[in-house]
Amino acid sequence: MQRRDLLGSVALAGLAGCARRAAKLAPQAAPIRAQSDRIFRVTVCLRPFRAAGPRLDVERVGDQTVVHNYGHGGSGWSLSWGSGLLAAEKAMATGEREVAVLGCGALGLTAAIQLQRAGAKVTIYAKERPPEVRSARATGSWTPDSRIALTNAVAPGFPALWEKMCRTSFHTYESYLGLAGTPVEWLDRYQLSDVAPAEAQANRRQADTLGFAHYQDRIADITPKSEDLVRHPFPVKYARRSSSLTFNIASYSRQLLNDFFVEGGRLERREFHTPSELRTLPQKVIVNCTGYGAKALWKDDSIVPVRGQIAWLIPQPEAHYALGYRNVNVISRRDGIVVQDGGKGEMEGYNDDNETPDRPAAEALVQGVAELFGRLRA
Ligand SMILES: Cc1cc2nc3c(=O)[nH]c(=O)nc-3n(C[C@H](O)[C@H](O)[C@H](O)COP(=O)(O)OP(=O)(O)OC[C@H]3O[C@@H](n4cnc5c(N)ncnc54)[C@H](O)[C@@H]3O)c2cc1C
To answer: Regarding beta strands 64-68 and 285-288, do their DSSP bridges make them parallel or antiparallel, or are they unpaired?
Structure first.
């Protein structure tokens, strides 16, 4: 592996102010400009986590059929197409062809499009639509088993069902690659560490006192292998490179909305306070994709909030990669550079429903990224 192939060679060249040499090297690998004045917003989102995994059953409410499709924890975007397909199949099995979808986040939009593809006429009813929805404040990575369930709480058939949803989603995402606006793309990701990767992983596992489920082994055949970099320019002992499917959620959400409208979909802004209010809808089949909102609407106390905050740095198209180091994860998306705290692993933000952004914490995190790149300069 040649040093010049790596991200850091450019970072070093750029940081040393060697403009002539930097210009010769891959322009997509510049250093992240981690300065607090470049934080253009701080967002918070609550993951709708259920120990038993997402709620996907079918329920009768009066003379209506409700297909549930909520509670996907930290995997909502990743599993959305597969979960939406399952919901669409159940809705179509009723014989009805006019279907209501509650919710316009990751799960609502994809379920609506899956229903249209199956031949249904769909109306989405939602209190918020993108970019207001919680889904719009997600990291935007392929993380299909992030806070999806607890190993000991799932039904025996859940791992296989997860795999099915996962594979459907993964293959559907293929069709969103290479489109104008880059809704979906692959990014190189560098995992940096001062201790050996196996030790780092053991430390993360130790921090998980609840036993979150991990099913990556089931999809090894569709997961690019990561490689340990023997020579690398980072100021750390270990660096590992992998490829990460990334969702540029601003353009991806618009693409989904467009796809929905092109197929004749209708979107109506409505808020529901109890399931009995669904009676006012003309549709007899309803797909419930209300995410964390289901906790109040459906009185589902099994939903646990898992808080996640993101500091958004001004986009840098020339810095086209993701990296993780100590507690910080950075993803250079087209619509903003995501800087996120992952220090407690899956436990980070568990059972915290505070949706108020914490600007000082965001600045401290960005300072950590600045220090990493500062050490590169030294
Ligand atoms: C910080 C963070 C980072 C994340 N990163 C990733 C990631 O990288 N990859 C990944 O796959 N997942 C990620 N997730 C998880 C993912 O964001 C969620 O699983 C997903 O957003 C859930 O989507 P949803 O459509 O179910 O819910 P939401 O986006 O919350 O949408 C719910 C919809 O229902 C509507 N609604 C709710 N209640 C009512 C009501 N009473 N009446 C009418 N309408 C209602 C809302 O208005 C909205 O339209 C992340 C989550 C967080 C918090």
So the answer is: parallel
Q: What is the rounded CA–CA span in Å between residue 111 and residue 298?
A: 19
Span 336-358, pLDDT tens digits? 999 999 888 889 999 999 999 99
- Alpha carbon nearest to ligand 1 atom 19, residue: 76
98 C-alpha to ligand 1 centroid (Å): 24
Quick check: 48 and 70 in contact, CB under 8 A?
Answer: yes
Give residue-wise pLDDT tens across range 225-271.
999 998 887 889 999 999 999 999 999 999 999 999 999 999 999 99
Architecture of the CATH domain 3-45+187-244+305-377: 2-Layer Sandwich (3.30)
Tell whether pTM > 0.90.
Answer: yes
Tell me, using a 6 A CB cutoff, whether residue 143 lines ligand 1: yes
Q: 229: which 2 tokens? A: 């970099």
249 CA from centroid of ligand 1 (Å): 12
The full set of domain ranges for the chain reads 3-45+187-244+305-377, 48-175+249-304
Q: What is the distance in A from the centroid of ligand 1 to the CA of 359?
A: 22
The domain 48-175+249-304 having CATH identifier 3.40.50.300: the answer here is no
Atom 20 of ligand 1, nearest CA residue: 76
* 3-45+187-244+305-377 and 48-175+249-304 share one fold: no
8 A C-beta contact, residue 191 and residue 197: yes
